[in-house]
Amino acid sequence: MKVKKIGLIASAAAMLVGVPGTYAQESYKLAYIDPLSGPFANVGEIMLNHLQFAVEDINAKGGVLGGTRLELLQFDSKLSAQESQSVLQAAIDQGAKAVVTGGSGSSVVTSLVQAVERWNRRNPGKELLVLNHSSIDPELTGKACSFWHFQTEASTTMKMQALANVIGTLSEVQKIYLLNQDYAHGRQWASYGRKMVAQVRPDIQFTGEVYHPIGQVKDFAPYVGNVAQTGATALITGNWGQDLTLLMRAAGDAGRDWHFFNHSAGSMPGTVTAMSMIQKGKLTWVAEWHPGQANTDAAHQLAAAYQERTGKPFLAPRIDLTPRLLAAAINKAGSVQTVQVARALETMEFDSVIGRVTMRAQDHQLLLPQVVNTVAPVDGELVKTGWEGTNYGFRTDAVFSGQSLAQPSTCQMIRPQA
C-alpha cells in the first residue's frame, strides 16, 4: 500500500470520528545495529548520534514522499555476529525496512548482509536494505556483494591507495611494521598495505606482521617491544577505538617516535587526546573530511549545527550522509517498496556537504573523496583549531577524489527480476 493512500485513509478516519486534523502517516523504520555496550560503546554512540541528527533534520524538512517520517530504531550488536542476527529479527518484527550498520566490524556486517539475503529470498515483498556506513571490507562490494547492501564509506582498497600515495612521498619512511587486530579487516588492512605501499615504494622494508585479539589487549607494551626490535619506525595499523589509543600510549610510554598510518583515527574519540599527551610520533589517517579542513564550508556549517543541537563534536559526514542518501532514493523511487528504493539508490548522484558523490551501480560502492591528514599541533597556519580540548588538530596532507581511488571490482551482482 502506498504511503499517500495511507495518509488519505487516516485523514478520512479523523473526520469521521470528529477529531480535528489528520493522523500521521506510517513511518519508514531504520534499524541501527552497532555496539552500544562493551569496549567500543563510545564509537557506537557517536555513530548513533550522527544518524539521529540526520534523521531528525530530514523529518524537520518534511520527511520523505511529502510527509512520511523516518524512524530510527536502536539495537546493540555487542560486537557479535550472533547477537546482531538476533536483534535483526527483532528489528524485522518491529517493521524495519532498512538496517544501518558498520561500526561493529566487517565480520558482523557480513553476517548481517548474509542474514538479510536469506530473509529477502524467503519473504518477497518484505525485503530489507543494508546501509553500511563504516565497515570497509572490499569483499562486501567484491565477491560477497549483494543487491541489498550499499556501502557509504570508502573501501579498504580506496583508503589504502590514498595512504600509499602519500607514503610514496615520505623519504624518511624506510621500515614499516604491520600490527593489526585479528579479524577480516585487520588482515586486509595489512595485506593491502604491504601490496599497495610496495607498488609506490619498492625500497621500503616490511619488518614484521602480527595480529592481536580485537578489544581484548589491555597492555600493548609487549607488542611495542617486539616492533622496536625489528628497527621499524612506522606502523600500518587498522586498529580502532581503544585498541588504537592503547597502542599509541604504549609506544609513547616507551619513548618511540613512530609514524602510525591508519584509516579512521581522528574520528575515534580520545585519539587526538592520546596524541597530545604522548607528544611523540605522528598519526596519519584518511577520511572523507576532517574538522578544520579548508574550502569545506558546507561541512563546517553542518558541523556547527550538529554541535549546537547535540553539544557534541561532528566527526563523520558519511554517517550523516547515509540516511540522506536513503531519503533521496525513496523520493526518487516515489515509493518505500524496497526493490524500487534499491534500484533508485544504486544509480544515485548526490550533492553532499563534501561534494558530489556517486553510488557505483556495479557493486554499490559510494565514490566519495578521501583526505589524508595528520594529527599535529596547532600552528595557526596549517592547523588552526585544536580538537578534544587540546592544542592538537588536523593537518591536510592530500585530497583525492573518489573516482581517482576507485578500484576494479570483482562483484557479480545478482539483481531481482524486474
Describe the structure.
The chain has two domains: 3-154 and 298-367, Rossmann fold, CATH 3.40.50; 157-287 and 369-405, 3-Layer(aba) Sandwich (Rossmann fold). It is built from 13 helices and 15 strands. The protein has helices spanning 3-16, 41-60, 81-93, 106-122, 156-167, 184-200, 221-230, 242-253, 271-278, 297-310, 317-333, 338-345, 402-405; strands at residues 28-34, 70-76, 98-101, 129-132, 149-151, 175-181, 205-212, 234-236, 259-261, 282-287, 349-352, 355-360, 365-367, 370-377, 392-400. The strands form three sheets. It has a seven-stranded mixed beta sheet with strand order 7-6-8-9-10-14-15, with helices on both faces. Strands 2-1-3-4-5 form a five-stranded parallel beta sheet, with helices on both faces. 47% of the residues are buried.
